[in-house]
Amino acid sequence: MCSSSLEFSSEQKSDTGWIVAGLGIHRQEERCIFLSAGEWQTLLREPQPHLDHLDGHFVIVRWQPGQITCFTDQLGLRPLYLTEVDHGVAFSTRLDWIAQLMDFRDVDIDSLSSHWLTFHQLSSGSLVDGVKRLGPAGMARCTSASLCLEGHKWELPHDEMRGMSLESVLMALVNPMLGRSQTLSLGVSGGMDSRFLLCLLRGCPHQTYHIHTFGHPDDPDVHLAKRIAKGEQLSYLHLHESIPDVDQCLKALKEYMAYNCATEPASSVLKMRYFPHIHELDRVVIDGGFGEIARRQYFNRLLRLGKQAFHSGDPRKIAPYFRVHRAKIFNEEIIRSMESTIVQHIDYLWTQMPDMIQIGDENFLDLLAIRTRFPNWGAYEQSRMDSMVLNYMPFAQPSFLRKMFQVPVQVRKNGRLFREIIKRRSPSLASYPLVKGGTTYPFGMSTLTSQLWTRLKKKVGITFKNVMPVKFLHHLSEFVKDTAHSREVKNSSLYDHSYIVKIVDQFYHGKLELATEVDWWLAFEVWRQGIVNGIK
User: Fold this and answer.
1) pLDDT tens-digit series, residues 103-142
2) Per the domain annotation, does 320 fall within a domain?
3) Statement to judge: residues 222 and 256 lie in one domain
4) How far is CA 498 from the centre of its chain?
5) pLDDT, tens digit (0-9, with 9 covering 90-100), for 43-78
6) 229 three-class SS
7) Are residues 67 and 140 in the same domain?
8) Mean pLDDT of all residues in the chain?
9) DSSP line for 351-404
10) Is 259 exposed, middle or buried (0-12, 13-18, 19+ CB in 10 A)?
C-alpha cells in the first residue's frame, strides 16, 4: 500500500483498528468530497458499515478481537486477495505478494481462459491457483480457524434519483473539494470521453485544473490535446521521455506487470509510467475511463454481428463473439481446456443476469460490462494508479451508473448525449475533430460513419503508426531472446514452446509484423515469473 492512495489507519485499542486502501467519495448536489480519516472512522464504528451510498474505489480492513473483516467497493475496482496459510489467513491488495506466501503457486487455468482469450476475464476467480479474490461489494470474515467470503453483483437501480440529471451528477463528480495545494489534472486524448469531462470542468468556475497527455508528439491524441490546450488557453502538461536503460526498463516492466496481470502488452509500460511526475506536482488525476458505457459501446460485436446467438442464450454460439486474439502461445491441450471453460463462464453469467426481454438488449449488455469489465480489467490498472497518484474516474462511479440507466438508450448510444451537451455548454470544443485508430474524424460523425471514415484513411495510409512497441522489444532483445530460449519457458506445461521461439526469432530477423504477438507473450511471461518467483 502506498501513501498516494489515501490510506488511513486508526487504533483505539491495541487489538482494534482499521485501514483503507484507495479512495472513498461522497457525492453531494454540486460537489463531491473525498472521505477523510474522521469520516471513515465514523462509518466503520457500525457493526455492519453501510457502504452502498459511497462512490470511489477502496478496500477496507477492520480488525477486532478474534476476527478481521474486509470490505470492497461496489464495482470491485479494488480487489483483495486472500489465501489460507498455517495458523491463519493472509491477505493483500497485490496478487504477486500473496502468491509468495504459498508453498506451491501456479496460474489458475480456469480464470486465465477468458482473461486471455476474450475481451477480459468473465469469471470472478483469482488468476493464481489457491488464492481467492474478494470482488464487487465483497465482505470477508477471517478468523484463525476459518475464512468466509461473500459478494454482491451490481444490480440495475430500482428507484430513481429524483431531482438530478445525468449531467448534474457528473458535474458534482468532476468538482471535488480539494486540499489547499491540490489541483485537478485531466487526462485528455482525442476521444469523446475526455472531451466531455473537459466540457464539464469548464463549467466549474471555482475549480483549478490542468490537462495532461502522454506519448509521442506525432501521435494524433497528443497533437490534438496540445491543439485544444492552445486554442482554449488551458494549462497543459505533455510527458514523453526516451526509453530508459535496460535495467531500469526491466525493473519498471516487472513492477507494471505485477499490477497489470497481462491485461495490456508489455510495451504499454512506456506510456503508463508518468503518473509519479503528476503526483510530485500535487495534482489529483481524473480521466475518462469507462466513458464508453455512457455511449453504449461495450459488446457491440455481439449486438450487431451475433444478435441471433445473443438472443439464443446458447454459450457455444455466444463465445466466438467474445473472442480476441493476443498471442497463440499456449499448447493445444491448454487451449482446448480454456475454450471449454469460456463456454462454462458464459453459461454461468447468463444464468445470473436479469431477463433480457424485460430490461432490453442494450441494458443487458451494459450491465454485463459493469459486472465483468470493471472488476476484471479496470481493477488492475486502478490498483496500480493508486500506488502512484491520487486519482479517480467519474464514469466509474455507482451514482453515475445508477443515473445512466435512467437515460433512454437512444439518447445514450453513438455519443449523442455527450455531443449535445458539449455543443450546448462549450461549443468551441465541438470544433475540434476526434481521434480513433491513429487518425482523426469530424466531431459530428456517428459511430458507424466514423468507423468507415477511419478505415478509409487507414487504407490509404493516413494514420499514425506507433513504432514504440518495436523499439521497446529491440531495446530488450537480449532479455526477450534469453527468456524465450530459457529452460523455465521450455519446461512450462502451459506453452507451445516451439511457437514462442519461432515468433521471437522471426521478429528479431525482421518480421516486424510479429511485434504484437511477442509483446503480448512477454507481458504474460513477465507476469508469470513474478507470480512463481517474485520480482527480482
Assistant:
1) 888 999 999 999 999 999 999 999 999 999 999 999 999 9
2) yes
3) yes
4) 32
5) 999 988 999 999 999 999 999 998 999 999 999 999
6) helix
7) yes
8) 94
9) HHSPPHHHH-HHHHHHHHHHHHHIIIIIHHHHHHHHTTS-EE-GGG-HHHHHHH
10) buried
Alpha helices for 239-289 (secondary structure H)? 246-260, 275-280
Is the same domain home to 31 and 135? yes
Alpha helices in 281-373 (DSSP H): 300-304, 307-312, 315-318, 332-352, 356-359, 361-373
* Structural domain for 182, as ranges: 166-294+378-436
Q: What nine digits make up the cell of 22?
A: 484507495
Torsion of CA 114, 119, 124, 125, to 10 degrees: 40
Question: Is residue 203 domain-resident?
Answer: yes
pLDDT band at residue 534 using 50, 70 and 90 as cut-offs: confident
Let me know: does 61 contact 132? Beta carbons within 8 Å.
Answer: no
Task: State the Cα–Cα distance between residues 150 and 470, nearest whole angstrom.
Answer: 44
Surface-to-core class of residue 53, CB atoms within 10 Å of its CB (0-12 exposed, 13-18 middle, 19+ buried): exposed
Same domain, 352 and 493: no
| Whether 266 and 390 share a structural domain | yes
- For residues 390 and 4, give the distance between their C-alpha atoms in angstroms, rounded to a whole number: 5
Look at residue 287 in the predicted model and tell me its pLDDT.
96
pLDDT digits (tens, 9 = 90+) for 18-27: 999 999 999 9
Quick one: pLDDT at residue 6? 42
Q: Are residues 365 and 410 in the same domain?
A: no
Residue positions counted in the chain: 536
